[in-house]
Amino acid sequence: MPVRQQIAIIATTLLLSFNSYAATEVVVENAWVRTAPPSARVLAAYMDITNHSGQPRYLISASSPQFKSVELHQTSMNDGMMHMTPVDAVTLEKGKTIHIEPGGYHFMLMGPKQRIHRGDKITLKLGFKNGEAVTVEADVKDSRDEPGQTASHQHHH
Ligand SMILES: [Cu+2]
After folding, report:
1. For the domain 21-143, what is the CATH superfamily, name and number?
2. How many Å apart are CA 26 and CA 19, to the nearest integer?
3. What is the dihedral of CA 109, 127, 121, 151, to 10 degrees?
């Protein structure tokens, strides 16, 4: 086999193994969306994101086929008032888990294309600065499903 062809094959193999490894570097768990009244034009999504790669990752975008747009927001208290501000990027330190949870960061899901019900699945696509994308399925939950409310869990359906 000519050397050039061998090199091409090695390069392809490296590329393939790099890609499959990269796909598992950022892991999303516990993704959920909080239910809202039928008239609500915005919903919020939460999740835990772990960066298993050896370097920082930057979450820079999100989208969902079920919503017109998705923004990353941060909730903060200012003079006793709750504020939400859009953020351009969330830094994921290497080896760390970031909790996107009520009171901190959240994904703001804007303009639902149809009514969202408890138990629905919301597809979210997260985009990272390095070009990586992760697709997430988030469960729609209401207060009965939230942590600390498990006592009433058995009554649904
Ligand atoms: Cu918000």
Report:
1. PCu(A)C copper chaperone (2.60.40.1890)
2. 13
3. -80
**Residues 50-77 pLDDT 10s:** 999 999 999 999 999 999 999 999 998 8
Whole-number Å distance, alpha carbon 17 to ligand 1 midpoint, is: 38
Interval between CA 83 and ligand 1 midpoint (Å): 8
**Å from CA of 127 to ligand 1 middle:** 18
pLDDT at 85 over 80: yes
Beta strands 67-78 and 133-141, pairing class: unpaired
- Each domain of the chain, given as residue ranges in start order, spans 21-143
10 Cα to the center of ligand 1, angstroms: 47
The two tokens of residue 104 are 């901190």
Provide mean pLDDT across the span 73-102: 93
Query: CA-CA distance, 77 to 63, in Å (whole number)?
Result: 27
135 Cα to the center of ligand 1, angstroms:
20
CA distances 75 to 10, 19, 84, 100, 104, Å, are 48, 35, 5, 11, 5
Q: What is the mean pLDDT of the chain?
A: 85
